Amino acid sequence: MDRILIDTDPGVDDALAILLAMKSPELRVEAITTVSGNVHVEQATQNLLTILGLLELSAYPIIAKGEAHPLVKPLVKAEHVHGEDGLGNISKLRNFDGSLRYPLAHCEISTLSGFDLILEMVDRYPDELVVVALGPLTNISKAIRKDAKRMQRLQSIVLMGGVFREYGNVTTTAEFNVFVDPHAAHDVFNSGIPVHIAPLDVTHQVVLTGERLNAEIEGRSDKISCFLKESTQACMEFYREHIGFYGLHIHDALPIGMLTHPDFFESVDAYVQVETEGNLTSGMTVADLRRERQRPIPNASVCVKVDSDAFLNHFFQRVLS
Ligand code: BDR
Ligand code: CA
């Protein structure tokens, strides 16, 4: 069983990833740190409590609020995709008696900063802990900048970020998580820690249509089914208007699947670099993924293919279990 720390900026697809992780018996979610990305870190932390409130847990992972701003660039958010509150505006929903439709979990938030909690968890589980990064890499970079030696005791970092052979989703060349904090991504790729990447090229292979979601939750009235339906609606509308289909990509769920079901995925080792300066290319990830061109020494393994049917079936089976 892998002990994991999830670093996240929830975000609709982050929520789906957290639910999948919490329902994966192969994983132990020891801690969760939040970071500004899709929404500001204050809202991201509230959202995390909403997500954990969906699960009837007797014990919670340790939670810490992370960085509010990227290392160098001003923060760019994605509320236009994920809804004003980052979870499809479900925080506005009320029951008949006025109470919250999706109440927050009553769990404590650590007084440690996100990066200090990461370092503390490495100490607790040396050579064992896997960091699963689902947002901009600011917290992880700060942990590396504070104590690079200690961070070498991570087992690995599995992250959703970057794009190699397709267009980006923020600019023509950049994917959101890397675009928001390219300097942090640079630190992570050059850290010497084993890095596994789920870029847009592979997350785009998994298409969750509104039709499929409705079919999966039809006739169900449990909290998670209602959450799946209500939290994804704004995002699906955005996709209908701007991407060309009614549905969404569940980007952040893929790194969770890569850990529990590596047989669904194909990866290649590569030397990955990130553009931190370019006017047109800020946040662009660059790597030659041709197997015969593996020079210089690889610093990451980049996922290039997923069995999307197997993964989506698995996702629903777990999340709705
Ligand atoms: C990534 O950007 C965010 O909007 C999603 O949550 C995901 O982590 C996809 O580019
Ligand atoms: Ca995310």
Summarize the structure in words:
With 321 residues, the protein is α/β, with parallel strands linked by helices. It has one domain: Alpha-Beta Complex (Inosine-uridine Nucleoside N-ribohydrolase, Chain A). Helices cover 36% and strands 17% of the residues. It has helices at residues 12-22, 41-53, 79-82, 114-124, 138-146, 148-151, 176-180, 182-189, 200-203, 210-217, 223-242, 253-260, 308-319, and strands at 2-8, 27-34, 62-65, 130-133, 156-160, 195-198, 207-209, 247-249, 265-270, 273-274, 285-286, 300-306. The strands form three sheets. The protein has an eight-stranded mixed beta sheet, with helices on both faces. Strand 1 (2-8), helix 1 and strand 2 (27-34) form a beta-alpha-beta unit. The chain starts with a strand and ends with a helix. The relative contact order is 0.16.
Number of helical elements: 13
Rg is 18 Å
Ends distance: 20 Å
Average per-residue pLDDT, rounded, comes to: 97
State which percent range the strand residues make up: 15-25%
Secondary structure: number of strands: 12
Order of helices and strands: EHEHEHHEHHEHHEHEHHEHEEEEH
What would you call the shape? globular
Ligand inventory reads: beta-D-ribofuranose, calcium ion
CATH architectural label: Alpha-Beta Complex
User: Could you estimate the helical fraction of the residues in percent?
Assistant: 25-40%
Low-confidence segments? none
Instruction: Characterize the main sheet.
Output: 8 strands, mixed
Strand order of the largest sheet: 3-2-1-4-5-6-12-9
